[in-house]
């Protein structure tokens, strides 16, 4: 395949890229300190990810396992955080009602949104009980790892 060929004309190549990205996510979820560079190759398909490096020599981005979705607490609010970089969606498809709105109760495992990353739709789920106090991220907004998506108030 030349650089000028359209990859959408090659479904097998797209499947390989998706598989490599899925495996990369799995590898990164098990490390405490992220690498500065990650290179993966499956046959002729290669994926390279780089993180900025601070003056201390450590990667700037926190490892995927280092922050859990509702770990931060301020003023009795807990925040559901993005667990990956991508585009955040409130609903399963355009025109559909949102998964949750302000005032809704959530429980662990309740889907509250979707993040699209590298053509994969990754569910965003609550990891604890609470009431949605605020929706902090606009539908269709780009999010970084650790971005606040929802503020949850303890219910009760």
Automatic annotation (TrEMBL):
<keyword id="KW-0276">Fatty acid metabolism</keyword>
<dbReference type="Pfam" id="PF00364">
    <property type="entry name" value="Biotin_lipoyl"/>
</dbReference>
<feature type="domain" description="Lipoyl-binding">
    <location>
        <begin position="71"/>
        <end position="153"/>
    </location>
</feature>
<dbReference type="InterPro" id="IPR011053">
    <property type="entry name" value="Single_hybrid_motif"/>
</dbReference>
<keyword id="KW-0275">Fatty acid biosynthesis</keyword>
<comment type="function">
    <text>This protein is a component of the acetyl coenzyme A carboxylase complex; first, biotin carboxylase catalyzes the carboxylation of the carrier protein and then the transcarboxylase transfers the carboxyl group to form malonyl-CoA.</text>
</comment>
<dbReference type="InterPro" id="IPR000089">
    <property type="entry name" value="Biotin_lipoyl"/>
</dbReference>
<dbReference type="InterPro" id="IPR001249">
    <property type="entry name" value="AcCoA_biotinCC"/>
</dbReference>
<keyword id="KW-0443">Lipid metabolism</keyword>
<keyword id="KW-0444">Lipid biosynthesis</keyword>
<comment type="pathway">
    <text>Lipid metabolism; fatty acid biosynthesis.</text>
</comment>
<keyword id="KW-0092">Biotin</keyword>
<protein>
    <recommendedName>
        <fullName>Biotin carboxyl carrier protein of acetyl-CoA carboxylase</fullName>
    </recommendedName>
</protein>
């Amino acid at each position: 395949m030349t650089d000028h060929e359209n990859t959408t004309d090659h479904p097998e190549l797209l499947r390989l890229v998706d598989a490599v990205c899925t495996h990369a996510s799995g590898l990164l979820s098990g490390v405490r300190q992220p690498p500065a560079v990650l290179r993966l190759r499956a046959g002729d398909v290669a994926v390279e990810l780089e993180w900025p490096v601070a003056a201390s020599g450590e990667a700037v981005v926190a490892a995927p396992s280092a922050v859990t979705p509702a770990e931060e607490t301020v003023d009795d609010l807990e925040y559901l955080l993005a667990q990956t970089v991508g585009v955040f969606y409130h609903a399963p498809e355009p025109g559909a009602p949102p998964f949750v709105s302000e005032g809704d109760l959530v429980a662990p495992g309740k889907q509250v949104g979707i993040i699209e990353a590298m053509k994969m739709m990754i569910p965003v789920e609550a990891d604890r009980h609470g009431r949605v106090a605020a929706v902090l991220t606009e539908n269709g907004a780009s999010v970084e790892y650790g971005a606040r998506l929802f503020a949850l108030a303890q219910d009760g």
